[in-house]
Amino acid sequence: MRTRLAVAALLLTSLTACHSPRVHRAYDAPVYPPTNADEVRVITDVPAGAIVLGEVEGTGHALFGDAMTTALRGAASLGADAIVVHGGAAPDSREGGNIGETRTMVRATAVRLAR
Questions:
Q1: In terms of DSSP H, where are the helices of 34-83?
Q2: Strand spans (E) along the chain
Q3: What is the DSSP letter of 95?
Q4: In the chain, domain spans
Q5: Which residue, 33, 85, 87, 107, has fewest beta-carbon neighbours within 10 Å?
Q6: What span, in angstroms and rounded, lies between the C-alpha atoms of 3 and 96?
Q7: Is the pTM of this model over 0.90?
Q8: pLDDT, tens digit, for every residue of 64-85?
């Protein structure tokens, strides 16, 4: 019984684990307090007057849109209020770790819009 509970807990943890974003702050970027990831917008170009804060990379499970959510969290940690998505990777089941797991990746520039 204990073994089954331990296996069930381990499985549940692996299915719901959050992915950590890779965050690379620009060397000359000012430091801002974190923003709310739910309010970070996706835009198509860096507008005039915006401050580039750095690059973020999010990975996640393909079925749940985790890669974009992870990238937005990374941008929010830099104090961004928008990201410009400029790359990503198609789902690839060879890298996942778990059999049948499919991961995706999103690369984006984190920006602070002019106020």
A1: 66-77
A2: 22-25, 41-43, 51-61, 82-92, 103-112
A3: S
A4: 19-112
A5: 33
A6: 25
A7: no
A8: 678 999 999 999 999 999 999 9
